[in-house]
Amino acid sequence: MSSLSWRLIVVAIALVLGLAFTLPSVESVRQSPLGKMLPSNQVGLGLDLKGGIHLTLGVDVDKAMGNSLAQAGQDIKSFAQEKEMTIIRQNLLDSRRLEFVLATPEKRAEFEELLRKQASGVKVGKSEIIDDGKVKYTVSFTPEYAKNLETLTVDQAVKTIRNRIDQFGVAEPDIRKQAGDRIQIQLPGLKDPDRAIALVGKTAHLEFKIVDDTVDMTKAAKGQLPPGRELVMERVAGPGGEFSERAIAVKSDAVMTGEHIADARINFDPQNNQPYVGLTFTSRGGRIFERITGENIKKRMAIILDGKAYSAPVIQDKIVGGKAQITGRYTESEARDLAVVLRAGALPAPVNVLEQRTVGPSLGQESIDNGMMSVMVACGAIALFMLVYYGFSGVVANIALVFNIVLILAGLSLFGATLTLPGIAGIILTMALSVDANIIIFERIREEIRRGLPSRASIKEGFQRGALTILDANATTGLTAIVLYEFGTGPIRGFAVTLLLGIVASMFTAIFVSRTLMELWLVGKPSETRLSI
């Protein structure tokens, strides 16, 4: 098989694949019988083209630190009990410091050795002898552990929100970390923004706290609470199905959080067909839950979701098996959404909506129209210049230019990339790069013709020598695009994606497709045939 024959086969395969992945993005083709035979991939449109909502969330890292420190305190207490040491008066001073008392001072050295070996990431800030020789400790996380925990908290929040949105069914979401413990979310083409905002903004921060029924609620209502206690509002269902709230006092330290949830499902009470959310804990969570219920028999445990107690049942016995349930007279939709956010993962810390913007579909359509107009004007101007300046060779360059655009759109569709206004700018730039590559080659061919070489030899020399220059120029541009993609935000990354795809496509069309078309034109013609260039 000749060199030209296999080149034609490669070009034909690239054209078929390019059209197969580009055409499904055209509405009329997608709805036609042909569309049913094509891949389902489409070019996704970004927020600036399709409309939707933009959210900026702030992650309450301090809350996560406090919860983790409280859990570390529970682990320390559990380790101490196994060694017959007693820990009392355990409470958080703030999100960074935990205070507790060792009631068995004769085992102080053994306890401090236990802290060093078992409590990884925890350091003793200070210790002092108090009444009856007991030892009071103030502990905190080490700076390295605290920094790592802050990073993990935001990373987990990003992952959790992405899982929720994926289950909600939003197409082409853009979710990324930003500086200052913030998360940026863009949801293009959203049809039900209110429900999505509720789903994303719902922290689903689940905590289990022990109720302290000894607290004087009259004094508590005036703000006179014992140390280590706080008030939360409990949701209470009335006889007529209406809901009211009442204050209950709970211990400030959560004995367990939602991070140990393995699964959450909507179930129905067989007696009244009322929906509730059933929880299944991880193996470690099941052991913690078993220990907590065993230590607090006949006490009430409040199940607190986003700062509100949905139920506070009395623990009748140690609960084994790692299962629990959240009731509260939900509607089926409310119970399903709650199960989604818990199954996708409770956020490791509360999040606050710092910014919310809505981009209307009318603005998106205007952006699409303007963007497409800019592409057509740029393409027309380039095509006219090439045709006038290079004659037949300009026709070849124009065909390669159209091929280049088809391959870029096919690449966006194949890799699930999102097209944005900066992305359209990237397409226009790669059109110029593609033509620039042809100009380098054509000028080189002109030089060879002036030297007296025949057309076939001039084409061969022009493409071989021009290819090195094109490769060098595109390699440096490609490295720049990679840096933009790695460190840029949404719009910049959209520009980088189309630029990278355009670089690859333009090198293929300029070096490979253009040469194939020019050699094909010379097939069967005399060797002295002059090339129109």
Tell me the number of strands: 19
Query: Nearest-angstrom radius of gyration?
Result: 33 Å
User: Gap between N and C termini, in Å?
Assistant: 29 Å
Biggest sheet details: 6 strands, mixed
What gross morphology would you assign?
elongated
Percent of residues in helices comes to 40-55%
What fold name goes in the CATH topology slot of the largest domain? Gyrase A, domain 2
CATH class of the largest domain: Alpha Beta
**Major β-sheet strand ordering:** 11-10-16-15-9-12
Overall pLDDT confidence: 82
Uncertain runs are none
User: Helix tally?
Assistant: 16
Broad structural category: alpha+beta
What percent of residues are in strands?
Answer: 15-25%
Count the domains.
Answer: 2
CATH architecture of the largest domain: 2-Layer Sandwich
Defining traits:
Multidrug efflux transporter AcrB transmembrane fold, Gyrase A, domain 2, 6-stranded mixed β-sheet, 4-stranded antiparallel β-sheet, 16 helices, alpha+beta, 533 residues, 2 domains
Structure description:
- Helix content is 53%, strand content 22%.
- It is built from 16 helices and 19 strands.
- The chain has helices at residues 3-22, 27-30, 33-37, 47-50, 61-82, 108-118, 143-168, 193-201, 217-221, 283-295, 332-343, 361-390, 392-414, 421-450, 455-487, 490-522; strands at residues 44-45, 52-59, 87-94, 97-102, 122-129, 135-141, 174-178, 182-188, 206-210, 229-237, 243-251, 256-257, 261-268, 275-281, 301-305, 308-311, 323-326, 351-359, 418-419.
- Helix 13 (392-414) runs antiparallel to helix 14 and helix 14 packs antiparallel against helix 15 (455-487).
